[in-house]
Design a protein that fits this description.
The protein is mostly helical. The protein has helices spanning 6-12, 27-58, 68-111, 115-144, 159-172, 178-214, 218-242, 249-275, 281-295, 302-336. 79% of the residues lie in helices and 0% in strands.
Amino acid sequence: MTEAPIWALARSGHCRAQPGTLRPVTLLETLRSVIAGIAWLVLAALLALGSAGVAAVLNHTPGTAARLELTYAADIAAKPAIDGAAAQLAGLGNAVDQLGIAGRDALTSLVNGDAASLQTALDAGAARLSTVHAASDALAGALAAVPYVTGRSELYLSTALAARYDQLVKARTLVSGLADNWSVFSEQALDASAVPALLTEHDTLTAKAAREGSAGRYPQALKLLDSADVSMAKAVALRDRLGRKADVTTLTAWLSANATYDGALRTLYQTLRDAKGHVTSAVRKAFAGEQAARQGLPKDTKGIIVIMNDIARGGLNQAVISIDTTKGLISKVLEQGH
């Protein structure tokens, strides 16, 4: 008997699976196999995504918002203490502000030539500087009382609170140079306040010498010029000290013009004294020198006002600006904490 092909038997419905023989695969079975394969692929993808999610959770940096459960207890304990330190920093900022006000008062008194008010402002500044030191110490104590910051780990304190604490620590260092700053400011202000008095003293002595010389009392005139020279030397010494920080260009010009006139006046009176009242060529030359030097003198006292303004705009003004800048930086730290 001739065997029919399998496909022919299958189509006629007479194909039966016999032991040891191959059975044809139906379309339904093929679809079931494909669907099962797709299901396994989907399941594998879901498992992979789930593993990635677990890994992402485990990789969250401790101390961030993603791991609040790790830092919650320490944050609750540290935050009130950090808030307390911020309050101490606010007090420090107020103390610095008051110091700046004293500095501005001192500058105003200096320019106005009010020595008494200047001393009052400088004394007030010294007292306010003590307040700054006390507020700085109080801030240091408050910072030391904050828990979980010494040898801290991100596992215990959140990044935000740790950063705020570090800002407060740095803010305290902003006032470290204020004491030296105020000391230099006070010294310069007192030196500057002495300038008008010395210049006036010098002018008064020189004027008296001129009156004595005009009356023919040359020895007395020369003695007064010696005293004027002492005042001039003191003014030059002040100019040199102030010149380290301030603009002393106008002051230098004033001193130079007056020193030139003092020398010419001294030469005239010494020459007249030596000539014993006779008009000699030396006397004529000395008189011409005195007249030329007189033309170089300031015409009024407005130059002293310019001198004081120049000095105030220099190192003294910068010292007050530095104090105000420190207050601004402290305020910025406080604003960042809100």
